[in-house]
Design brief:
Layout (H helix, E strand, L loop, with lengths): L13 E6 L4 H10 L5 E6 L9 H11 L3 E4 L13 H22 L2 E7 L22 H14 L4 E6 L2 E2 L6 H11 L4 E3 L8 E2 H13 L5 E4 L9 H15 L8 E3 L22 H7 L15
Parallel strand pairs: 1-2, 1-3, 3-4, 4-5, 5-9, 6-8, 7-10
Length: about 300
Amino acid sequence: MNAFPFLFNTFVFMKVLLTGANGGVGTVVCQAALHTEGIELVPCSRQALDVLDSRALAKALLSHKPDYVINAAAFTHVDRAETEVEEAFRLNALCLKGMVDACNQVGAALIHLSTDYVFDGEKKTPYTEEDKENPINMYGASKWAGEQVVLAYNLGTVVRTSWVYSLHSKNFLAAIPRLLRTKDEPLYVENSQKNSPTFALHLVEALLALVKKNVRQGLYHYTNAGGGCTRYEFACHVRDRILEKEPGARLVPVYPMEPVLQDPPGTAPRPLYSVMSPDKIAKQLGLTVPHWQEGIGFII
């Protein structure tokens, strides 16, 4: 299976500085950029560039003079954000003022990744870019605060996504194939929260398309299509796909977890429905957004 199916025929040279280059999304950006004509990537890991240091940001951008900055650095632990509120806001919002200032000095456009957790989950149909934000946890609140900083910049773009996974991810979706193969007991999976799983390479394809199309301002949603699913439904599809590929595979069964009446202590509340529509970005960039089931083959 070709992991890099997209090609750009029109040559446009762009220099892109990437923050958070050693994270789950950042790693895939680095891989995909090697296969994308016209992109010169300057990858910056957390160790190489501390996004909390405004002077370091200014120095890096003045040195490299990128056309775009893709910010993949973030505080991503939803539960810890409830108690580490200051740290979550520093990394997801406050540091963006320095990043915007640095971008402004060199005329660089900024693409910033955000989340579906800016919504409260009360809606029953996919959220669009026109829907009102109302986060119900500190992680979502910190990301929404960051969005406002970026969108106030005349060259700022926010791309909201959700449940991003790949072989490089350290989250539950990416871990399901290993758990199915190694657990001694059935795998019980949460079945109340409905969201849009997003294969990281599909998201990265859209981010690089924004650069190639020279989109320099706006708010977009990008998730895989198909109306979303619960983690339980995703796990069931992973199990089915493994058995299609390996009919004799020994896998533990998957069962839905019993719903809880209230969140356990130390757990952040999650929106029960936060499926987002990718129609706007698909139409503007001429993208065909893959179904959420299409990324599963890359992780099994």
